[in-house]
Write a structure and sequence with these properties.
about 325 residues, alpha/beta, 434 Repressor (Amino-terminal Domain), Rossmann fold, 4-stranded parallel sheet, 13 helices, Peripla_BP/Lac1_sug-bd_dom, Lambda_DNA-bd_dom_sf, HTH_LacI, Transcriptional regulator, transcription
């Protein structure tokens, strides 16, 4: 005779609804009740589905990794490194590519809950209302990577985006540039807003006002870098330099400069951001802001594994990693 949820409830002296909440990892159930129900589940060898045994053992060895776009070279590198890092600790990753769609992300969160993952890494955005609501209802450890949680409800790790773009702009100012454009990202991304603020602050400290006509807020890819460049470089009042929100945008901008008969860096300097492998291999080599992708990935994994191990004793943390300006051939000094 097969064991049912009612048998578990009767043995544990709780309601079937309570057993259901325990099996669905719902927070309202107390720790004592949860442990009592799981003990009975194990005693009765109750297997409601393929992951029930994992629940009883209190681990599935699965980690959800939610990203905004697999097409983003920087994010792809992050996934490769963190997957290897989790594998070293005998965890398997479930990759969830949301394509920057909140609806898709919500579906993936529900899927990860159903898979009883031991933890979740999010590299999509700072905490949004639907993410906060999900993790308030479901007791799953989570770390935000590439984004800082201002509220400190979650552990997070990133660079200081404001300071990084400030330093990039400051570098161009120090080598003589005064009209510097900004090829940024959509303002729905906090990091795009922070980088824009850093750019404006560096200009302000040199007594230079930011010109709205020199600021572009598109996406982080080659196509948008190219489109921005084609719109800007044909103007008679074009700038002498551009700060780009990513290396892929910088590559698109360089292609646009070439299409307009401009030399990089002879006629215009291009500053990237991220320091992906292509930035070094490209011609000219791209001067850029290096994000420590290895450290970002490893520390994200380390923080989540620590949270999984320590459970209620874990103290949420925010880590800010160092960035670095990498000087190559896409920027040059100007005079006059």
């Amino acid at each position: 005779m097969s064991i049912t949820i009612k048998d578990v409830a009767m043995r544990a002296n709780v309601s079937p609804a309570t057993v259901s909440r325990v099996l669905n990892q719902s927070k309202p159930v107390s720790k004592a009740i949860r442990e009592k129900v799981l003990k009975v589940v194990e005693e009765l060898n109750f297997n409601p589905n393929s992951v029930a045994r994992s629940l009883v053992m209190k681990e599935s060895r699965l980690i959800g990794v939610i990203i905004s776009s697999i097409d983003n070279v920087f994010i792809s590198k992050f996934v490769n490194i963190i997957e290897e890092e989790f594998f070293k600790h005998n965890y398997t990753t479930l990759l969830c590519n949301t394509r920057s769609d909140d609806g898709i992300e919500k579906d993936y969160l529900r899927l990860l809950k159903d898979k009883y993952v031991d933890g979740v890494v999010l590299m999509t955005s700072p905490p949004k209302p639907h993410q906060i609501e999900f993790f308030e209802q479901v007791d799953i450890p989570a770390v935000f990577a590439g984004h800082i949680d201002p509220s400190q409800q979650f552990s997070s790790v990133n660079i200081d985006n404001y300071q990084a773009m400030y330093d990039a702009t400051r570098y161009l100012l120090e080598i003589g540039h005064r009209r510097i454009a900004f090829f940024g990202g959509p303002h729905i991304y906090r990091q795009a807003v922070e980088r824009l603020s850093g750019y404006k602050q560096a200009l302000a400290e040199y007594g230079i006002g930011s010109e709205e006509s020199l600021i572009f807020t598109n996406d982080y890819d080659i196509d948008h870098g190219y489109a921005n460049g084609m719109a800007l470089f044909q103007r008679p009042d074009r700038p002498t330099a551009v700060c780009c929100v990513s290396d892929m945008v910088a590559i698109g901008a360089i292609k646009a400069a070439e299409m307009n008969g401009l030399s990089v860096p002879g006629d215009i300097s291009i500053m990237g951001f991220d320091d992906i492998l292509l930035a070094k291999a490209y011609c000219p080599g791209i001067t850029t802001v290096r994000q420590p992708i290895q450290e970002l990935s490893v520390q994200t994994a380390e923080m989540l594994l620590k949270q999984i191990k320590q459970k209620e004793d874990y103290v949420k943390e925010t880590r800010i990693l160092p960035h670095e300006i990498i000087v190559r051939g896409s920027c040059m000094a100007v005079t006059g």
